[in-house]
Amino acid sequence: MTSAPVYDIVEIGDPRLRETAKPVDLTRLDAILPIAQAMKEWMDKRGGVGIAAPQIGVGLQMMIVASRPNPRYPDAPLMQPLLLLNPLPLRYSDTTVEEWEGCLSVPGLRGKVWRPDAVDIEYFDAAGRGHQLALCGFPARIFQHEYDHLIGMTFVDRVATPLDLVSEKVFLEQILPARLAAK
Ligand code: NI
Questions:
Q1: Residue 146 designated active-site
Q2: Parallel, antiparallel, or unpaired for β 96-101 and 109-116?
Q3: Residue 112 CA from chain centroid, whole number
Q4: CATH number, domain at 148?
Q5: Could you tell me if residue 2 is inside a domain?
Q6: How far is the CA of 156 from the centre of ligand 1 (A)?
Q7: How much distance in Å is there from the Cα of 165 to the middle of ligand 1?
Q8: Which of 10, 69, 107, 112 has its CA at a distance of 20 to 30 angstroms from the CA of residue 45?
């Protein structure tokens, strides 16, 4: 008798977050549906705006980008959640922007990271169809953050200095209110 795999959130320090994810077999798409479902459930449960398969211990090139306002990201723009298989960045903008990031695999911490503010990507959907998409602003940032998970990186690797790391508590109580007031 076989039982369904149990997925749990993988946290920083676990070697699985350092591995390079393998491409999804697009001829066996039925196999990825339970994984995508588990990713979405964890993302929703933890107030994430995106998640990558390695974060639930699955070394496949899968991510969800789902910008929406919630208590952890109150000023995030709303978009339809997007499941991306075998995603690839094609071109980055020259303009870079600095923004705070958090991660379900790095609980309790936020980091300030410079990234290009736009990226053109290609990916396959759950039906195996190929797409190209131009992302900008916060969704472009989420994509780049999740793509890092597919190449064994987290936002902690991207901060310019450890001074750009703060606790989630300090972020929510001090930095975020000041940011929202300035908007
Ligand atoms: Ni993350």
A1: yes
A2: antiparallel
A3: 15
A4: 3.90.45.10
A5: no
A6: 10
A7: 15
A8: 112
